[in-house]
Amino acid sequence: MPSSRPSSPSDPRGALQALLTEASGDTLRRAQWLDTVDQLLRPHLPPGLAAHARLANVRGDMLVFVVDAPVWHAKLRLATRELVDAARSVGLDVTGLSVKTTLQPLRPLAPAARTAPPMSAAGQSQLEAALALLRSDDAKGAEAGHKAGARRTRKAPTEPTSGAS
To answer: Are 72 and 106 in contact (CB under 8 A)?
Structure first.
């Protein structure tokens, strides 16, 4: 159940609301509007293209899209007519499409998607050999430490000598 008290400016929603009510919030409102238009146009993108294209701007009578590879640039240009019609159906007065290509991913990869490439058999065997060597060194070090500790406990503690007589 939502709280009846107004959110404080230190609350993230309160801070966002405060920002949106000021003139400086125009940029943020514009970004939210562009994101909404992007979500409306996304179903009209050719299959497979939605993950590689994003609406970046509506400049005058042009839709401006950003894609993450030249191949998607060409596919998006081929879909100009459908996208312009879809944009008009949601109330935008556009006549064309501009496409920009970036080399950066449009959306950050999910942590699960960032997997290391599989290790080669040679790499795997070298890793196992290195781990075995480390384990044997650790075992030797622990054994030597155990023997040294046993010798120390057998000796009687010596009293420190003082320089004064």
So the answer is: no
**Contact predicate 101/115, CB 8 Å:** no
pLDDT, tens only, 134-156: 888 777 766 666 565 555 555 54
| Of 87, 76, 73, nearest in space to 36 by CA | 87
| pLDDT tens profile 98-114 | 999 987 777 766 666 56
Considering 4-18, 23-37, 87-101, 112-126, the range whose residues carry the highest mean pLDDT is: 87-101
d(CA 13, CA 15): 5
The region that residue 44 occupies, defined by phi over 0 for left and psi between -120 and 50 for alpha, beta otherwise, is alpha
CB atoms under 10 Å from CB of 51, counted, come to 13
Burial of 17 (0-12, 13-18, 19+ CB in 10 A): middle
Give the separation between CA 44 and CA 25, rounded to whole angstroms: 30
